[in-house]
Amino acid sequence: MRRLVLGCALLAALASGIAFGQPATVEAVQYPAWLERGGNSVPLAPGIALQAKDRLRTGANARVLLKLGEGSAVKLGEHAQFVVEKVERRGIFRAALNVIAGAFRFTTAAIARHQGRDINIRVNNVTAGIRGTDLWGKSTDARDLVCLLEGKISVGSEGNPTVTLDHRLDFYQKPRGGAPEVAKVDEKQIEIWSRETEIAPDGPAGRVGGTWRVVAAKVGKRDEALALNRTLHANGYPSRVAMEGEGMFIVQVTGLAGEAEARALMANLRTVPGVRIPLVSPMSEAKG
After folding, report:
1. Burial of 57 (0-12, 13-18, 19+ CB in 10 A)
2. How do residues 255-277 score in pLDDT, each as one tens digit?
3. Which residues does 288 contact at the CB level (< 8 Å), separation at least 6?
4. Domain coordinates of the chain in residue numbers?
5. Fold that domain 205-285 belongs to in CATH
6. Can you give the C-alpha Rg of the chain in angstroms?
7. Half-sphere exposure of 272 (CA within 13 A, CB side)
């Protein structure tokens, strides 16, 4: 019970406001996804400021968009495991990111390319040094790979020399138990890979500034609302309990990017035990 209370308190603190100016923040989440910090696991939600040693996990068909403090974006695909090993701004921006499993994309905004920074991304057993670029990568049971989409990167793996990729569509891969190799991929494959890390236009996604909500249930007992809230949290949805009307409690997920995204989330929530005829509405219609 104490662990549950701590987890709920952490989620409330994380989601209490949008963290502008932080070294790294969560910009958007296509649910379900989780944040593990200090031994607690809570649903990942837009606006959360990330800290060193935070671990992010995504579920089936999930996506995450992160914004780093110097302007770069990191996108994660489904079934990903991602650790923020280090992220700080002390004179220059420094970050060490670890993709343990799943697909990711790192894209540098034009304005960020001229800022002082030191960013390294480790894809399980492969490490890439970032120098103002766009790259895609993935770690699977069979291999780790990094593909250059724009700019230049230095890539290496333990026990093997570091190489430089400076031509678009060059990729470095390290098979499990095998030697690394550098090859080239075609544009069609890049389109397929890119879809693995893009939030769907009508996917069940919340964003910073999102104005729609899904009410999972409306009940007359607080304990019943809290029980459903715990179930939704365990399933990777950042729900909250609120009062709406006299003596009525609602369990809702707020901050959905739009009506289409809210309806997609509504469809997902129908499969969660305890959810009662979920309803979609703009947050401006919320009462209480």
Report:
1. buried
2. 999 999 999 999 999 999 999 89
3. 242, 243, 244, 245
4. 52-195, 205-285
5. Alpha-Beta Plaits (3.30.70)
6. 20
7. 27
In the block, which residue shows the tokens 């990711």?
A: 104
Amino acid in position 32: P
Model confidence over 195-250: pLDDT tens digits? Answer: 999 999 999 999 999 999 999 999 999 999 999 999 999 999 999 999 988 889 99
Which CATH number is 52-195's, of 3.60.9.10, 2.40.37.10, 1.10.8.60, 2.60.120.1440?
Answer: 2.60.120.1440
By the 8 A CB rule, do 58 and 80 touch?
A: yes
From CA 256, how far away is CA 77, in angstroms rounded?
A: 19
User: What is residue 13's predicted lDDT score, i.e. its pLDDT?
Assistant: 45
Distance, in Å, from the CA atom of 142 to the CA atom of 119, rounded to the nearest integer, reads: 26
Q: Which two tokens stand for residue 41?
A: 């696991």
Please enumerate, as own/partner, the contacts of 275-280 that have beta carbons within 8 Å and a separation of 24 or more.
Answer: 275/216, 275/217, 275/228, 275/232, 276/216, 276/217, 276/218, 276/219, 278/214, 278/215, 278/216, 278/217, 279/214, 279/215, 280/212, 280/213, 280/214, 280/215
